[in-house]
Structure formats: C-alpha cells, structure tokens
Amino acid sequence: MLLNKNKRMKVLFFGVLADVTGNSAIEMEASDLDTLKKNLSAKFPMLNQYRFQWAVNKEKAEKNMMLNSNDEIALLPPFAGG
Amino acid sequence: MLSREEIQHYSKQLLLPEIGKTGQEKLKNARVLVVGAGGLGCPALVYLAGAGIGTIGIVDFDHVDQTNLQRQILYSADDIGRYKSIVASEKIKKANPHINVETINQKLETKNALELIDSYHSVVDCSDNAETRYLINDACILLDKPFVYGGIHKFEGQLSVFNFKSDNGTEGPTYRCVFPEPHPEDSLLNCAQTGVIGTVPGIIGTLQANEVIKLVTGIGSLCSGRILLVNTLTLQFSEIKIGRNVSVWNDMPKTKEEFILKKYFNITEAIA
After folding, report:
1. Of B49, B173, B205, B272, which one's alpha carbon is 20 to 30 angstroms from that of A61?
2. A interface mutation test: which of B35, B132, B153 has the most A CBs within 10 A?
C-alpha cells in the first residue's frame, strides 16, 4: 500500500515576498501548514525578516491545518505604499 | 434637498436606480476624510468630488514635487512647491462647485487625529507609510468609524473596508486583525524607495472612492471581511477572506488617552 502523506500544493507570494523569493508562485509538498511553513523558511531564510499573513484557499489561516493536494497557500504582506 | 443646479450636475448618476435622488442626497450629506493627497489620494479625491460627497476633508502636509507628477493626477508642473492639500482642494472644487472641501494642511498625528476624524463619517486611508496606517486604524476603532484602506507595492495593490459595522451590528475586521502590529521593515517599503507606476495607485485609489460611494449609499456589497489583491502585471484580481480577531490587537491603545500618548512614528525616526 502506498502511503502518500505529502501532497503537492501551490504557494503564492505577494508584494515584497515575491521580490525576496524571486517567485510569485511555486509548488511545494507538505502534509500540514506548520510543516509547509518550516520548509518554506528553510528554502527562503529571508522570509523570516518579513511579517505577513498566511491564507489557505483564499481564507486567512490562524492555526495549523492539514493540507490537501492542489491547495493554494498565500503569503500576504501589508502594502505600505500610496 | 438637491438644488436645480445639482440635479443637472448629477443627472447621469441620478439616472441609475441604485443612486437616484435618495442616494445623491446621502452623498451630499456625507462627510469623508481623505488622509494623504498623493498617488492614492488624487484619484480618490477626483471621484469622491465627482460623485458629490458633500464635504471632503483633505489631510496632507507635503508640497508638490516634480517626481509626483507621473502619478498624482491633481497636480501640474506649475504647482511644484505648493501645498498638496491646497492645490488638491482648488482642483476638486473647480471640478464640482457644489461640494465643500476642508483643507487640513497638517500631518496626521496622535494629538490631532481623534478630533479631526471624529467630525467625519468615514476615512479613506491614502497614506504612504505603515505608521499612519496603524494610527488611522486605531483612531477609527476608538471612534467607531469605518475606513477604506488602500495600499500599493510596485505593480500590486490591496484594498479593504475596515471596521465597518453592518446594519445588524456585526463588526467587520480591522487592519490589526490582518496585520496585528507594525514591523521595522514596513517603513522601508514605500513608493519613494521601491518605485511605482501611476496606473497602480490610480486603480486602487479609484476603487477606494468606489467603496466610499457604496458605503455612503448602502448599495452593492462592500469589500469588508475580505482583502482584495490586484496584480496589474498579470491583471489578476483575487481576494482573501478575513475575520475580526480582537485577540491579536495587543499593540492597540485601549483608550483615547493611551492613543494620544502612543508613539507611532518611533520606527521611522529610529531608522532616519
């Protein structure tokens, strides 16, 4: 039996986070949001210098949750400019 | 009551059943404060004045600069060096002589914010720095006023109506529900440093005015409980649902007295 614990999901970077990661969207694998956060900060250590909000499937994510294949995770920083 | 002249002036929007005379009178009786007369503020002011918001306050302490002209559509080359609040006020009054404009040639600070905001029904956050955004948010919460937030970063924009109380008394999310407290990096990310093309604040500032028109007239569904994200390079509009979460407002002053004593601008000053 194949245990497919890690699922593939889309990660979207907005604003300055797209600048610092050099991507507006990437694909990653993780079973839950906390694991994804850990993997992302290992892949892009400069993310730790910024503060942003997490959203899963277009809804603000307050705490850890299981992730499913094709989920869309967004990292949203505030935009100060005007 | 609308005058004969006003009925003529607004005839094209009076034709819209959603606006009509009732909506136009609501717009006429509205008092809206626009904080910042820059990239976002200029288009917002143009359309708020055009729609007939009866009293518009403009807070800005800055002068028109040559580098403003590629995006700040109220200003011309011969305005360079003049106060933005004064030039903006002249321009929008010329476009619509039926409105009152209150020119507030000051920086919005803790010592003047509560008194200034209190005399308006709603606020449009067209500021260009994180500190002012927290200050507006906190003052609006303490005074129970809704405000329309707009922000830009390069080719992207954000928009939301914060602290909106619906008719059934449900309170919408605030800026601090999404971004609980300021961060030193925020101050470094303004248009002056990162660059900006005029159409982006043009789009977001126009949408801010559009939300004010809906807020005042009660038509449509407001961008409350969600934050709109616009990417003008891919021309994609998306949104993220947000909820009110008072438990993360740790940095928020609890009273008006605390607000007046709070240091909002120490981050910038520390860097400068």
Report:
1. B205
2. B153
- Has residue B41 got a pLDDT over 80? yes
Name the average pLDDT for chain B: 95
Per-residue pLDDT tens over the stretch B247-257: 999 999 999 99
User: What DSSP element (H or E) covers A9?
Assistant: strand A7-13
Interface predicted TM-score (ipTM) of this complex, two decimals = 0.89
**Contact between residue A50 and residue B185 where contact means Cβ atoms under 8 Å apart:** yes
| Nearest partner of B48 among B162, B191, B148, B117, judged by Cα | B148
Cα–Cα distances (Å) from B134 to A42, B77, B116, B272, in that order, read: 31, 33, 16, 19
Distance CA A31, CA A4 (A): 9
Domains in chain B: how many in total?
1
Please give the DSSP secondary-structure letter assigned to residue A30. Answer: E
Express each pLDDT in B116-130 by its tens digit: 999 999 999 999 999
Would you list the domain boundaries of chain A?
A: 7-76
pLDDT at B270: 44
Name the closest residue on chain B to residue A78, using Cα atoms. Answer: B179
Burial class (CB in 10 A: 0-12, 13-18, 19+), B24: buried
Q: What is the largest CA-CA distance in chain A?
A: 55
Residues of B in contact with A50 (CB under 8 A): 183, 185
What is the domain-level CATH number for residue B145?
A: 3.40.50.720
Q: Name the CATH architecture for the domain at A7-76.
A: Roll (3.10)
